[in-house]
Amino acid sequence: MKQVHQLGVMLCGLLLLSAAVFGQASTSGQEEVNLIKGVDGGLYEPYLPSVVQEVQTALQSSGLYQGDIDGELDEETMQAIAEYQKQNNLMVSGVPSPVTRGSLLGEG
Asked: Which region holds residue 43: left if phi is over 0, alpha if psi is between -120 and 50, else beta?
């Protein structure tokens, strides 16, 4: 009976140790990313300012965006992207997805 108790204590110790080791290993080396909430409520990885500037320029040329070409994916930019997406029967997210950029910039 004493051996069974010792075995149980050892197993609990191993489980706690493995949880601590694997829990730390799964988060080490990862950078924290602030996700963007699209107009559809979805969460998206951020876009490079150069990509956003390119999209803002194209949206401004099409008359959908009147803001600054600053590379910021702000509310005004996202609303203009969403309007473009609606007008072109694309998935409306408000973010410059590859499909949206391809359509807007004539790529593809």
From this structure: beta
